[in-house]
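Dear colleagues,

I hope this message finds you well. In preparation for our joint manuscript, I am sending the Aldehyde dehydrogenase (Pseudomonas putida) sequence together with its predicted structure, so that both groups work from identical material. I would be grateful if you could confirm receipt.
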Amino acid sequence: MTNSHYIAGRWVEGQSSDCISVNDPALGQPFAEFMAASVAQVDQAVAAARSALPAWKTTSASERAAYLRGFAEQLGQRREALITLQMRNNGKPRHEAEIDLDDAIATFGYYAELAEQLPAKNRDVPLAAPGFTARTRLEPVGVVGLIVPWNFPLVTSAWKLAPALAAGCTVVLKPSEVTPLIEQAYGQIADALGLPAGVLNIVNGKAETGAALSNHNGLDKLSFTGSNSVGSQVMRSASAQCRPVTLELGGKSAIVVFDDCDIDQAVEWIVAGISWNAGQMCSATSRLLVQDGIADALLPRLQAALENLRVGNPLTEEVDMGPLTSQAQWLKVASYFATAREEGLQCLAGGKALDRDGWFVSPTLYTDVPKHSRLWTEEIFGPVLCARRFASEEQAIAEANDSRFGLVATVCSADLDRAERVADALEVGHVWINSVQAVFVETSWGGTKGSGIGRELGPWGLSAYQSVKHVTRCLA
Ligand code: NAD
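The corresponding structure tokens are as follows:
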């Protein structure tokens, strides 16, 4: 594959001197490579989006909705290829790759519906003062840059593309260099649907390409999902140009288990919250807070459940968990295992890389982790669970909130009044009660504190790509 960038409705070869290798993490070997987009090609993509904007933003909302439904249908038609590619390039187990595809399809369908409702949102505003009328117009923000990571490539891009196109924005998408082939489907679908040239552009590349996009003065907004360190650079670029930015960043989320829980059920939720996508989730519930009364019974069962997870190559084995997606991530997780050994943490399960080819690690559990430990405070982005015990509801809330992040949390309790009370007290963007990682397109996604700025999904995800205009007329 050489024509890997979609600019102004055409597939083009990358003109940078930087080569992108696409790897199979289960083997630790590349299976494709191509040249990254050059800075000049990023310029061309932004220029294409700019020239497509006037026509695209004046298309009817129902026309845009039809395109979005087309994206949903066409994703479905590419089902097997997209599932296989996610398994091969991300290392996702089949059932997870299927869920990601279904999520992306649902996202395009949902924003098609919201697009159709847009004309009704442009309405008169009742005024208390006599002599004037006023009306609201929701307008597209304009040309937006979208920069995404590698852990849920189909989904994260759908969460940005669908509302941006629904709002009438034109876009330049920069996928992660770790998983650059998956989002090419969006360009192929744009081709198949006859989406006007320049409405959707895709430039692939590493940090240099991302920086060329986020620093570009031809954008009206930048929406970024990724790490806090890069998010902070993206925010600096936005601030230099006084331009709006949405940031979906990292997390170090808590799962709080009260002692009235069914232990087997709680173990299932805890394991899912740390092993799904091999723990490479911004929303991984990687800090387990377990109440004193249940801890001694729960921890051995949790240890057994983690040790029994089937870890392997999703393309050739029945697995519960695949490899980490990149060698860099594998090395990072291994460095936390080393830190845990240096800190003398008590390891109940895992704590090591698997002795086989590919970037595999064991599902890991550390217990009684001190609050000051780097493993308790930092986002690891792997299947590494740290546990602490608590006595009271107040203590659980205080410890859960004692983090610079604020993305999600899970509360497990048979006492639903308590669970709701704790949910209200947690300083995060999304709380699950007696469930884990259930994300619905109608609800919001995003965090408080260091986990970001803004919200995706739901009507909030659409608002992120809209500008509110009021027209006020004097009747005199
Ligand atoms: P990353 O920040 O390294 O990269 C994200 C994207 O930014 C990639 O496309 C990358 O090429 C690009 N990039 C790198 N340097 C850049 C620069 N200087 N300027 C502009 N763009 C640049 O993150 P990652 O390793 O790909 O993803 C993991 C991180 O993403 C984790 O911290 C995770 O928590 C976060 N994440 C957050 C959410 C959320 O919804 N809050 C969802 C998924 C992932």
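For the figure legend, we might mention the following. The chain is about 40% helix and 20% strand. The chain has two domains: 5-249+451-474, 254-433.

With kind regards,
E.M.
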